[in-house]
Amino acid sequence: MLEQHGAEWENKIKIIGLSIDQSAATVKSHVESKGWTKPIHYWRAKSNCSDVYSVRGVPHVMLIDTRGKIAFKGHPANRPDLAADMEALFKGETLTGEGCGPAEAKDGAPALPEGYKEASDEELANMMKAMDAFKETGVQVQEACKEEV
Fold it and tell me: pTM of this prediction?
């Protein structure tokens, strides 16, 4: 896409690759063998970015709009034309469909599905604490299972 749209996208649209490979050498070799020299590449080196952004599989794509908000998050196969999506975002348009988040209500606020309510900051903080505790419990269960084997 960068080769095809390079002149019009230059310094306006960026493609960034974030690798979860075990070594930087593996990433470098793969990038060179595929000829992917135009995108910006990062090797995450044991970062927690997969947890932070809820990435549960690869490949995984995030399209960021001109306001810095995630416009799409998910498998690239869920978008029929990523180049067209990037063009739309560059023009300030909004993407719709699976992985694009809730539709907006008329007043610009996110529309919540029927039966849902917006959580308060305190409720969100409590949910995050519960999720952190669950992660720790999961680690303890995994360690216990390793000891039994």
Answer: 0.57
Q: Is 72 exposed, middle or buried (0-12, 13-18, 19+ CB in 10 A)?
A: buried
Residue 13 CB neighbour total at 10 angstroms = 19
Q: How many domains does the chain have?
A: 2
How, if at all, do strands 40-43 and 16-19 pair? parallel
| Residues 134 and 61 occupy one common structural domain | no
* Domain extent at residue 139: 119-149
Same domain, 81 and 147: no
Tell the residue number behind the tokens 């599905």, with chain if given.
113
CATH number at residue 63: 3.40.30.10
β-bridge pairing 61-64 and 40-43: unpaired
3-state secondary structure of 11: coil
The model's pLDDT over 79-123, given as tens digits with 9 standing for 90+, comes to 889 889 988 988 888 888 888 875 555 555 555 555 566 777 788
Asked if residue 142 and residue 103 are part of one domain, the reply reads: no
Task: Tell whether 40 and 94 lie within a shared domain.
Answer: yes
Q: From the CB of residue 88, how many other CB atoms can be counted at a distance below 10 Å? A: 16
14, 40 in Cβ contact below 8 A?
A: yes
